[in-house]
Design a protein that fits this description.
GO terms for molecular function: hydrolase activity. Keywords: Hydrolase, Metal-binding, Zinc. Pfam families: A_deaminase. Its cofactor is Zn(2+). This is adenosine deaminase. The chain has a four-stranded parallel beta sheet. Strands 5-6-9-10 form a four-stranded parallel beta sheet. By secondary structure, the protein is an alpha/beta fold. The chain has a single domain, classed as TIM Barrel, CATH 3.20.20. Helix 6 packs parallel to helix 7.
């Protein structure tokens, strides 16, 4: 078995994957045909290539524009169910055992669905996908991260939707979209409400904005995880040298092991990862993920948008091994970090971690040392 096949067989935990960023091109074409929606291409291979090329612009704004097409075909119960079901099946086929799928219900009501109807459609699709995986002898657990769009004014309403469905598939809350100019302090009451309810929060931060964005996410938003977070290096003087000095925000994030939901391929596409002079990093070996791992940050590896970035968890991991000299031990450790940062209860995290260790031992054919859970 070669490295690529070995990595595909390893268990994976996915904490940062957008539902509307992972559609199969064939599905987009078929759903678009049902409503007469016009696409840039109607051949699956050509459409997939179009998304990848459009997302490779080096601009987060341009990257986000590609979602207009995927969101357009996710405005019906049928469309949402199918996309959610296929998301589960695709992740399971790639070795995922636990997934948190994030999406913004407010973007899927143009066809007349209510927020609750949209949520229910996605949950039904997830349930169908989990059942399909089980029927083939597999096992995967999937939760919804209910997301509010940063530029809109519906944070309160979306937070209420998440809380109303916390025992029906919603595992956490997020804000996404244009980060720069739309900080968490726009609606501080939302974070108080979620914290008072004991509901987990992850916030996109440190992707298109800097330390102040991360600071607001972890202090005002009380986020347990940071979506991307790669610009935390701006608060680490001498990052990449033998004598790095962490600032207050970086120390807080590391001391409290607030997980960084790093998405290497996406970060390189959107210019999220910067060097000390603020220049975009273009090659994976330059990406700060390895340095952050070496500094004992709670690094996790994720896909962000599988369609736009033409990626998967196996692809992300294989690139780290082949281009950044990561080992299987490194992959195991970030997977365990993701398991420990999942929005499930303590005992469930422990069980997930034990499953990961057992599957690593089975795949690699040698004893994998257990790290403390």
């Amino acid at each position: 078995m070669d490295v690529t096949e070995t990595i595909k067989a390893l268990p994976k935990v996915v904490l940062h994957d957008h539902l509307d960023g992972g559609l199969r091109p064939e599905t987009i074409i078929e759903l678009a045909a049902q409503t007469g929606y016009e696409l840039p291409a109607t051949d699956p291979q050509e459409l997939g290539a179009w998304f990848s090329q459009a997302a490779n612009s080096g601009s987060l704004v341009r990257y986000l524009e590609t979602f207009g097409h995927t969101v357009a075909v996710m405005q019906t119960v049928e469309g949402l169910r199918r996309v959610a079901r296929e998301m589960v099946e695709d992740h399971a086929a790639d070795g995922a055992v636990y997934v948190e799928s994030r999406w913004a219900p407010e973007q899927h009501v143009a066809g007349g669905l209510s927020l609750q109807e949209a949520f229910d459609a996605v949950q039904q699709g997830i349930d169908e996908g989990v059942a399909a995986v089980a029927s083939r002898g597999g096992s995967i657990r999937v939760g919804q991260l209910v997301t509010a769009m940063r530029h809109a004014d519906r944070w309160d309403e979306i937070a209420d939707l998440a809380l109303a469905n916390r025992d029906r598939g919603a595992v956490g809350f997020d804000i996404a979209g244009a980060e720069n100019g739309f900080p968490p302090n726009r609606f501080p009451q939302v974070w108080r409400k979620l914290n008072d309810a004991g509901f987990p929060v992850t916030i996109h931060a440190g992707e298109a904005d800097g330390i102040e964005s991360i600071s607001q996410a972890v202090h005002l938003g009380q986020a347990l995880r940071i979506g991307h977070g790669v610009r935390i290096t701006q608060d680490i003087e001498g990052f990449g040298t033998d004598n790095p000095r962490l600032g207050r925000v970086a120390n807080w994030v590391r001391d409290n092991q607030i997980a960084l939901e790093v998405c290497p391929c996406s970060n390189l596409q959107t210019d999220a990862a910067l060097d000390a002079d603020g220049n975009p990093l273009r090659e994976l070996p330059q990406h700060p993920v390895s340095g952050l791992r070496d500094l004992d940050f709670a690094v996790t590896i994720n896909t962000d948008n599988r369609l736009m970035s033409a990626t998967s968890m196996s692809h992300e991991m294989a690139r780290l091994v082949q281009e950044a000299n990561w080992t299987f031990d490194d992959l195991r450790d970030v997977t365990l970090a993701a398991a420990w940062s999942a929005f499930i209860h303590h005992d469930e995290r422990h069980e997930l971690g034990e499953r990961i260790i057992a599957q690593y031992e089975q795949v690699l054919g040698s004893q994998v040392l257990k790290r403390s859970l």
